[in-house]
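Researcher: Next sequence.
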Amino acid sequence: MHVILYTRSSCHLCDEAKAAIRMSGVRAHVTEIDIDRDPELQRRYTNDVPVIVIDGREAFRHRVDPQAFARYAAQRRSDMPDLAAEKCVPCRGGVPALQGEELRSLQHDLGGGWNVVDEHHLEKEFTFPDFASALEFTNRVGAIAEEEGHHPDIHLAWGKVRITIWTHKVDGLTRSDFVLAAKIERSAPSS
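Model: Next structure:
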């Protein structure tokens, strides 16, 4: 789940919103944007901060408590297609790679802070408290890849694992890449 938090400095409601998101127990990639650094955002939000946007949809303004945030997040998850329940379909080539709105829609459905890079590949870096935890996750990803017959690039380092996924036969992204990313996301430990 990707959360954009529009804030400004010295805003006690913004600090309360950040704390509520942390205390909600929801795994989310949070991007904080200070509206005072962008005149357009200042015009749009004036004194309405904090504004919390979840997976591209405005969810809260001014106040949020941990329970309300968790309920909203749970509802969003139940409304979304379950890519992780699908099976990767082997690509035999001859089909075009996904582009434009198709990619944006699947990225939105996937959530979890995955990045679509140059409309070519998916990428995400997971962090861990130590090497052993990162290695354990790497092994889980390897098992998922073998089961799905779809193999990502995996970079393992102390306390982090970076996953890069694309379909080589089309030199770009297919739905199966998002399915694999969703399965990997589901296997990641809660932060």
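Model: The mean pLDDT is 88. The longest strand covers residues 121-127.
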